[in-house]
């Protein structure tokens, strides 16, 4: 059989058991509990109000007093760790037992803090005392899973009349302070009255000084106004002359401006005419000249290329011709050399016969060369010493023939 457990928002159902599984905590909800296998317990989350009374506790200076405080505590259900701690500490306990444990813990911390403070500190600064108790007690109760919602002191008393004496002393002090305050107030009032009278007199004297200053400034300003009026009058007297001179100057400036504008227009027209002529020159002369220049450059380039090609062709032909002539000369020289070698060999063999043959080959040329000038000669004059066979005593034609024969006989190869 299955049990269906339901709880409100102010309590927690703790379901445990079932094979060592961790307990389940259900706050303000429902849970299924298997009988004989699981167990369900409840713990309240409501706020508990505790009255913490500490009677006849000796303070730091040995004065026994009574302190009563009110604390609001509850099991913290929003933090899982604190809820687990609270279940471990208080599960199965009644609310009264939980309240008793929390109350004893708070009372112990309250008594400990009272022993570390004086009566005056506790009585005069209750907020500090409450805050101290709240902080110290919260650290221990949190370990139990309980949070302190609030803590305040409601009463501080003693059985010996110590606090009453402090009250009477404070009352006397307050009365004394009131009398002193009254006397100081009276003194302050008299001082303020004297100061007020002094301020009044200063104000009166200040006003008198200000009046005198105002009168002086009035006179100075009136004199300044008179100067301004006289100056304005003098300026008014010169206004016509100044205006006339200014007007003439402006007319002159306008005339000069007109001349400047006219001159500027003339310059602009001249610049336009120059631009027109430049464009005309560009269209009629410069561009045709550039075209002619381009044509001539191309013609010159073509001619130069032609001359270069002709020179290269002539160079090649000359080179080929030179190579041919050199070959011919070389062949002729070789033939002549061979011929001369053969002649030399023949001369070696024939000697004088070879020389005669050579002379005979050359002799016609020599005779022709000698006869050439003689054919142009009209008369031959021969001079002799008179002792030889050749001379003036011999007839001319015989003499010439005789001389030729003589020359022949003189030749070395003549036999």
Question: How would you sum up this structure, described in words?
Answer:
With 415 residues, this protein is an alpha+beta fold. The protein is 68% helix and 15% strand. The chain contains 7 helices and 8 strands. It has helices at residues 80-90, 95-115, 119-124, 126-143, 162-350, 352-375, 396-410, and strands at 3-6, 11-17, 21-27, 30-33, 38-44, 48-58, 64-75, 146-157. The chain has a 3-stranded antiparallel β-sheet with strand order 3-2-5, with no helix packed on it. The chain has a 3-stranded antiparallel β-sheet with strand order 6-7-8. The chain has a two-stranded antiparallel sheet with strand order 1-4. A hairpin with a 5-residue loop joins strand 6 (48-58) and strand 7 (64-75). Helix 2 (95-115) crosses helix 4 (126-143) and helix 5 (162-350) crosses helix 6. It starts with a strand and ends in a 5-residue tail after the last helix. The model has no long low-confidence stretch (mean pLDDT 77).
């Amino acid at each position: 059989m299955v049990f269906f457990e339901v709880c409100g928002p102010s309590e927690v159902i703790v379901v445990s058991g079932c094979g060592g599984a961790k307990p389940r905590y259900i706050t303000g909800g429902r849970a299924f509990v298997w009988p004989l296998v699981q167990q369900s317990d409840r713990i309240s989350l409501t706020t508990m109000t505790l009255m913490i009374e500490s009677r006849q506790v000796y303070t730091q200076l040995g004065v026994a007093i009574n302190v009563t405080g009110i604390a609001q505590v509850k099991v913290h259900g929003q933090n899982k760790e604190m809820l687990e701690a609270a279940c471990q500490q208080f599960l199965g306990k009644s609310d009264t037992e939980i309240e008793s444990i929390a109350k004893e813990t708070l009372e112990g911390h309250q008594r400990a803090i009272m022993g570390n403070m004086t009566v005056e500190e506790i009585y005069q600064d209750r907020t500090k005392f409450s805050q101290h108790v709240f902080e110290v007690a919260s650290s221990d109760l949190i370990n139990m899973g309980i949070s302190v919602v609030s803590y305040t002191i409601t009463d501080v008393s003693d059985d010996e009349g110590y606090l009453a004496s402090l009250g009477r002393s404070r009352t006397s002090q307050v009365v004394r302070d009131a009398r002193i305050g009254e006397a100081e107030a009276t003194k302050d009032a008299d001082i303020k009255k004297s100061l007020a009278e002094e301020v009044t007199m200063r104000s009166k004297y200040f006003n008198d000084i200000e009046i005198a200053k105002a009168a002086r400034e009035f006179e100075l300003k009136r004199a300044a106004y008179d100067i301004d009026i006289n100056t304005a009058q003098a300026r008014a007297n010169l206004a016509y002359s100044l205006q006339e001179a200014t007007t003439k100057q402006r007319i002159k400036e306008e005339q000069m401006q007109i001349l400047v504008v006219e001159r500027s227009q003339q310059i602009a027209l001249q610049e336009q005419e120059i631009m027109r002529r430049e464009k005309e020159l560009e269209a009629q002369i410069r561009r045709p000249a550039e075209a002619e220049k381009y044509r001539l450059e191309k013609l010159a380039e073509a001619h130069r290329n032609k001359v270069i090609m002709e020179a290269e062709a002539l160079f090649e032909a000359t080179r080929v011709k030179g190579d041919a002539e050199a070959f011919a000369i070389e062949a002729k020289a070789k033939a002549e050399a061979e011929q001369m070698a053969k002649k030399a060999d023949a001369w070696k063999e024939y000697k004088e016969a070879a020389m005669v043959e050579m002379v005979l080959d050359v002799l016609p040329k020599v005779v022709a060369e000698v006869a050439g000038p003689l054919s142009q000669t009209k008369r031959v004059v021969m001079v002799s010493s008179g002792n030889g066979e050749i001379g003036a005593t011999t007839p001319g034609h015989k003499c010439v023939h005789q001389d030729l024969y003589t020359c022949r006989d003189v030749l070395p190869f003549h036999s």
